[in-house]
Amino acid sequence: MKQELKIPKVFIIVLNWNGWRDTIGCLESLQKIDYPNCEVLVIDNGSADDSVERIKGFLNSPPNKLRAAVYDLQFNLGFAGGNNFGIKYALESGADYVLLLNNDTTVAPDFLTKLIEVGESGKEIGVLGPVIYFFDEPRRIWFGGSRINRLRNKATHLHYGETRDLGTKFFETDYITGCALLIKKEVIDKIGPMMEDYFLYYEDADWNLRARKAGYKIVLAPAAKIWHKISASTKEFSPNYIYYHVRNGLILSRRHGTVLTKSIVHLLIAWTLAKQIVKLLIPSKRSWAKATINGISDFYRGRTGPITLNS
User: Distance (Å, rounded) from C-alpha 27 to C-alpha 232?
Assistant: First the structure.
């Protein structure tokens, strides 16, 4: 008798924060996927609007056929904190894989099938993700792999803005963005959940690097495709955006850099601070300079978690 192959169980975690319209759009696209063994967990991260009621209303109305549940956390636990709640639930519920998916995305019907095909092709593959395109420019790439610069504490998207086809063969990359990140249960069992002290940005890069240190490959699966509206939860290049990128990039360097790169980073910080002091004299650059200085200062003070800056 021919034995049936097990279809891995996937839990898709969609984190919502005051963004029910985007979340419902994401759920509408997930209704059309062809993967037969998945459930969706919508985690509301302390929204101040009526997101929970709106999303529950959508899920409870025909023709919705998703196997989905909504959890209201009451407080904003950050990207890692909110997702970790869902990850814990997924693992306790028998997940073989967990997929983190931004609420402001839409997906191709076969994206998850393509991801699982790659994930199941090798035990050494631990973290994987799709090619991500701009929602408003469906052929233009937003994420097609990545490179982490340990000296600049910066993670760069490869193929950003390009319109060429990346083919169908998967390849290794430095990290998979938390916008759409599929990870195996065994990897989470080995390395633990995401670090919550970043609060926002770089926690996904940290998770990838920990997986690689544990011996797993990080790969991009170009045959899997989704589209991203680009998050508006923190305005790009706002003081908060600058602050978190500066502070958290330094935290990432401290945790994963070599002795040499850490030493060079400290020298680069001195140069960066000198430039920011000059920028304080320029009104148009003052808020960015303050955010950069605060980020560096809080790194050395050991301050982590959320912060609100005045622009």
Answer: 18
Report which secondary-structure segment, H or E, holds 248: helix 239-256
If asked whether residues 198 and 264 sit together in one domain, one would say no
Q: Domain holding 96: CATH number? A: 3.90.550.60
Domain count, the chain: 2
Which residues span the domain enclosing 63? 10-228
Indicate the SS3 state at residue 197: coil
Contact call for residues 8 and 35 (beta carbons, < 8 A): no
Residue 162, domain member (yes or no): yes
Q: Quick one: average pLDDT of 217-222?
A: 98
d(CA 197, CA 207): 12
Per-residue burial over 220-245, b = 16 or more CB atoms within 10 Å of its CB, e = otherwise:
bbbbbbbbbbebebeeeeebbbbbbb
In contact, 33 and 15? CB cutoff 8 Å: no
User: Within a domain: residue 79?
Assistant: yes
Say what the pTM is. 0.91
